[in-house]
Amino acid sequence: AQKVTQAQTEISVVEKEDVTLDCVYETRDTTYYLFWYKQPPSGELVFLIRRNSFDEQNEISGRYSWNFQKSTSSFNFTITASQVVDSAVYFCALSESTGGTSYGKLTFGQGTILTVHP
Amino acid sequence: DTGVSQNPRHKITKRGQNVTFRCDPISEHNRLYWYRQTLGQGPEFLTYFQNEAQLEKSRLLSDRFSAERPKGSFSTLEIQRTEQGDSAMYLCASSSYTGQGYNYEQYFGPGTRLTVT
Does pLDDT of B1 surpass 60? Predict the structure, then answer.
């Protein structure tokens, strides 16, 4: 079973539209971390946010906001007033403490390709 | 502070040859990770080190793959007897682990793109 599911393979919007990228995860841990990364056409993964499982406060950073809901195991990402420069592949990832190693590897979703048209 | 660097950026090799990639992490980071990414997929974990100790290896990592981090600084990933299925982007990342069960975010390098012909 997929541990991190990003059901939206591709999303296309017009500049200035708001867009939400969905992420659903699966874990047995009570403490875990969730992440969002951006991979622009240049290819390098860029860290956007980390969220601890005990902190369910939503976070806003400029045009970006994140909605973490443990009850539905979701960690969704919204871009407000999208811009062409937001065009990229966005990955949601999970870090767990299973197997005796503390929060080592990231398990990534399949990614969502976001295209913002001018 | 420089980011994570990887060399080479591109490698083309013939099937059956051995290849080695190098990763230099962010200097104060004690954890170093290797991932593989194929087209249209998310990065897939291969292995990671804390200082010089290799703490976890993916079950998907065949015995043709080996990684080292001998002095707890840079790391090398070697693939022996390459196969066409090894063609992918190999990503390195590093992070700071405090030892209190708190692992900071991973910062990724630009990757090494391997093409096996």
Answer: no
